[in-house]
Amino acid sequence: MADLTFKIFRFDPANDAGPRFDTYTVPAFKKGLTVLESLYYIQDKLDGSLAFRASCREGICGSCAMHINGKYRLACETQVADLKSDSITIRPLGHLKVLRDLVVDMEPFFAKYKYIKPFLMPGDDAPPDRERPQTEGQHSKMIPSIDCILCACCHSSCTVTATDPEYLGPAALLWADRFVLDSRDNALKERLRLVDQLHGIWRCHTIFSCQEVCPKDLDPTGAIADLKRKAIRHRFLGR
Amino acid sequence: MQYHDVVVVGGGLAGLRAALEVNMHNLRVAILSKVYPIRSHSVAAQGGINAPLGNHPRGAHDSWERHAFDTVKGSDYLADQDAAVRMAKDAAERIIEMEHWGCPFSRTPNGKIAQRPFGGAGFPRTCFAADKTGHMLIHTLFEQIVKYEQAAERGELKIYNEWLVTSLVIEGGVCRGVIALELATGKLEAFKADAVLFATGGCGRLYTNSTNAMINTGMGMAVPFWAGIPLKDMEFIQFHPTTLYGSNILMTEGCRGEGGYLTNKRNERFLANYPDSRKGMEVAPRDIVSRNITTEILEGRAFENAYVNLDLRHLGEERIAARLPAIREICRKFLGIDPVHEPIPVQPGQHYTMGGIDVNSDGASPAKGFYAAGEASCVSVHGANRLGGNSLLETIVFGKIAGEHMSNYVFGKTDLGAGDKTLEDALAQEEKKLKALMNSDGGENPSNLKEEMQRMMTDKVGIFRTKESLSDAQRKIRELRDRYKKVRLRYTGGPYNYDLASTIELKGSIDVAETVIVGALAREESRGSQFRRDFPARNDEKFLQHTLAYFTPEGPRLDYKDVTLGYWEPKERKY
Ligand SMILES: Cc1cc2nc3c(=O)[nH]c(=O)nc-3n(C[C@H](O)[C@H](O)[C@H](O)COP(=O)(O)OP(=O)(O)OC[C@H]3O[C@@H](n4cnc5c(N)ncnc54)[C@H](O)[C@@H]3O)c2cc1C
Ligand code: SF4
Ligand code: FES
């Protein structure tokens, strides 16, 4: 396999007047080479100043989301071969402030997640020595949303988040729906109060880009639609 | 300087559970973590977490006594039996609590938490959330943290994301706080606290072939080690039998728990050919299965002399999709194969560190006010070999216990407020060291040293060990320690200087690696995960004891201490 050319976004707000792209040549040193392994190669062998986040290297921790050849994805689970190009361009996540190189400020993203009260609100006392019963059917309703790794790919790909910084965004709304769908939760009213607002569910224009990029194949668009339905029903029927 | 009643270092399961407990006691607690808590290695745990709930039809007669016994037997009798009993007794309560907090465990047909069989356990005892148990558990705990971060009814709970703790300050046997580097700015800061807990996880990245996250460097063990706290039983490193060939991503034991087969290139289920795995077959304990796979590889019965097959095909698509979805996803994404139709190439890889910071079953170390929990610690429930599903359990059981104990310690402490001067001095000293590192102009590239260390550990301090291989390793690690003095940073800027952070951590890795090597060399016996070809038998007379490694600038000094027995007499470990 031929050598690979990486064009990587570089920016140090403290010292650089503006961002630039640096170019590096990485040999395709192993079968199944991932973008993350290539980034480590660059950091280890070519340029120790390159900054990026990573942890699990297996697509479960959500650290390494970035824009790779036109799409937001996880660097660790993206094989170079699958990009079908010897030239790979990498930028940081979008709609979030760049702190350095590929490292962005995640705080606004997490603030939205925290805003929707992402914790079970059962509203009654649990049986003391045993689990709350939940059928396999009730459990499986949550399955499409409990896999979210808070990587922010969806957030970055969403055009509404770009124009309305206060929009709660696909990830936070998906989490709101995750608790709505949990048979053990009993706070529908409170949850709808948080999302049924100008910068909440109604801002979603159903462009599907969040669903398209989600590395976990989740469907934030669908979750938002579910919340919209429930909000309407709640307004008219009060439940 | 920052002031908190308690500082918890590490945002994995153990750290979060401990911080929550301290917060419940209404003390001001801070969590310092070098990555956002949910990026911790705990998130990657797949298979499950043990508790004798008896929810499985074959588990009706399970009990904490059986769980504790399986743990002790699995440990090859090196576990402290009082600690194993404590863990097993608390297990059910902790799991139920996690369920009450919202953990989406998989369910039985009658709505209870589902359980599956795991290696070395007498009953199906492992609770799980598909094969994403760690992800579900850590998100659940993080959710509770968010809840109480926002709530006014309890004492302050604060998270410092992306802070690397570089030193622990102990003054006359009393813990005063820590010094940490803020990755966002490159500045050092002192954190004063009446009690400090380290929950910094394992040190898998001492090895090349590891299932661990890239951040598991062992630095969190090195910091207290440098401050005079001993590391216990470091020679016991668990190798997981089934990691993906090439990347060493874990293929959970759940694959075998659900009924997967291991086959060699002759298409035999070779575990039947070994006396120690004949009966348990695929669900025999990890150390045994790992050794037997390695023997297949060494004796030429593996594919490409490197891997065997993990065959799930007979389980069928429906079961694989329901019980092992992440496994299927990983195979597709990293290898381009679908385990419904093709077997998975696997090889053993470093997986877990049984040893760690020496603490008792309250999580307390020899220094007052200093605690540890989770994989970074060695309460000694795993002894020489950990059973699958017990380490997640350890994090929440002993995270809670340590949190409680710390809180009581702080409430009873009489010299609250002392230590400012010591911390200021420690900060000044740390700043000097950092500056020296920044200005060092030697010729060594730190990442080369790291690579050499990882390769050496894999080759010489792996599944099979001998005096020769370990002596080679010792020579090499000393060489690396010397060469480290000449490392040169490639970047000296402030914000997000990962070159600096990883170079600081490399020093920790090297010193921790040396404790593994020295402990293994001195332990002239085979027990659990440590297999010495030159000493194939277990030697209770000499080595039914814990190794303690103390830091000295010339290399670790070893000492030993007794194992706590009292419930079960050590006997030969047979499955
Ligand atoms: C792939 C895989 C699968 C597993 N599956 C299972 C399973 O199914 N069942 C089971 O029981 N066990 C399993 N284990 C083991 C189990 O996951 C771990 O032992 C456990 O999660 C460790 O949790 P912890 O809280 O101790 O540490 P971690 O989750 O590793 O967290 C460590 C924390 O410390 C922080 N930290 C480290 N050093 C510093 C420092 N110097 N300064 C600041 N912060 C620092 C990190 O940022 C991190 O937040 C698995 C392990 C692996 C590798
Ligand atoms: S919904 Fe998908 S893309 Fe969005 S944060 Fe969660 S995992 Fe990432
Ligand atoms: S490094 Fe964890 S998702 Fe990529």
Automatic annotation (TrEMBL), chain A:
All copies of the 2Fe-2S ferredoxin-type domain together span 2-96
**Entry keyword annotation includes Metal-binding:** yes
Q: List, alphabetically, the CDD domains matched.
A: fer2
Q: Which GO terms of the molecular function aspect are on file?
A: 2 iron, 2 sulfur cluster binding; 4 iron, 4 sulfur cluster binding; electron transfer activity; metal ion binding; oxidoreductase activity
Write out the coiled-coil annotation as residue ranges.
none
Keywords for this protein: 2Fe-2S, 4Fe-4S, Iron, Iron-sulfur, Metal-binding, Oxidoreductase
Q: Which InterPro entries match?
A: 2Fe-2S_ferredoxin-like_sf (IPR036010), 2Fe-2S_ferredoxin-type (IPR001041), 2Fe2S_fd_BS (IPR006058), 4Fe4S_Fe-S-bd (IPR017896), Beta-grasp_dom_sf (IPR012675), Helical_ferredxn (IPR009051), SDH/FRD_Iron-Sulfur (IPR050573), Succ_DH/fum_Rdtase_Fe-S (IPR004489)
Q: Does the keyword Oxidoreductase apply?
A: yes
Pfam families per the UniProt record, alphabetical: Fer2_3, Fer4_8
Q: Which cofactor does it need?
A: [4Fe-4S] cluster; [2Fe-2S] cluster; [3Fe-4S] cluster
Biochemical pathway: Carbohydrate metabolism; tricarboxylic acid cycle; fumarate from succinate (bacterial route): step 1/1
Q: Name one GO biological process term.
A: respiratory electron transport chain
* Self-association state and partner proteins as the record states: Part of an enzyme complex containing three subunits: a flavoprotein (frdA), an iron-sulfur protein (frdB), and diheme cytochrome b (frdC).
Entry similarity comment = Belongs to the succinate dehydrogenase/fumarate reductase iron-sulfur protein family.
Q: What is this protein called?
A: Succinate dehydrogenase iron-sulfur subunit
TrEMBL record, chain B:
Q: What SUPFAM superfamilies does the annotation carry?
A: FAD/NAD(P)-binding domain, Succinate dehydrogenase/fumarate reductase flavoprotein C-terminal domain, Succinate dehydrogenase/fumarate reductase flavoprotein, catalytic domain
**Membrane-crossing residue ranges in chain numbering:** none
One GO CC term, this protein: plasma membrane
What are the record keywords, sorted? Coiled coil, Electron transport, FAD, Flavoprotein, Membrane, Oxidoreductase, Transport
Which topology term describes how it sits in the membrane? Peripheral membrane protein
Q: Which residues form the active site?
A: R286 (proton acceptor)
Enzyme nomenclature, EC number: 1.3.5.1
Q: What general EC class does the enzyme of this chain belong to?
A: oxidoreductase
FAD-dependent oxidoreductase 2 FAD-binding domain sequence ranges: 5-392
Reaction catalysis annotation: a quinone + succinate = fumarate + a quinol
For activity, the cofactor(s) needed are: FAD
Where can this protein be found?
Answer: Cell inner membrane
- Residues of the Fumarate reductase/succinate dehydrogenase flavoprotein-like C-terminal domain: 451-575
Q: Which residues form a coiled coil?
A: 420-490
GO terms for MF: electron transfer activity; flavin adenine dinucleotide binding; succinate dehydrogenase (quinone) activity
Q: Report the record's Gene Ontology biological process terms.
A: anaerobic respiration; electron transport chain
Q: Which family does it belong to?
A: Belongs to the FAD-dependent oxidoreductase 2 family. FRD/SDH subfamily.
Q: Which PANTHER family match?
A: SUCCINATE DEHYDROGENASE 2 FLAVOPROTEIN SUBUNIT, SUCCINATE DEHYDROGENASE [UBIQUINONE] FLAVOPROTEIN SUBUNIT, MITOCHONDRIAL
- For this entry, the protein name equals succinate dehydrogenase
